[in-house]
Amino acid sequence: MTQALMRLAATIEARKTADPDGSWTARLLAKGPEKCAEKFGEEAVEAIIEAVKGDRARLTSEAADVMFHLLVMLAARDVTLQDVADELERREGISGIAEKAARG
Prior knowledge:
Layout: H1 2-15, H2 24-30, H3 33-53, H4 56-76, H5 81-91, H6 96-102
């Protein structure tokens, strides 16, 4: 799975310089980070709705949309999947309560 996410992140990065007329991702990125964040939020809400409904197949589909749009939003702000992985590794083994307390 990690390899699929890495390939997707690389494709999204390549779309930053693609023609927006030929790529949904390029079109979204061309609209700016704010639009990318808005689209991520929309997809997250759709995933929440499916989680509440309990439809596993629909939740799986919406979760894929959320992950895709998260990567687009990150790319719009030049945050890489590796940056996120590094942060997760930094937090590994730290309790969620302790990690949140350390943030202030």
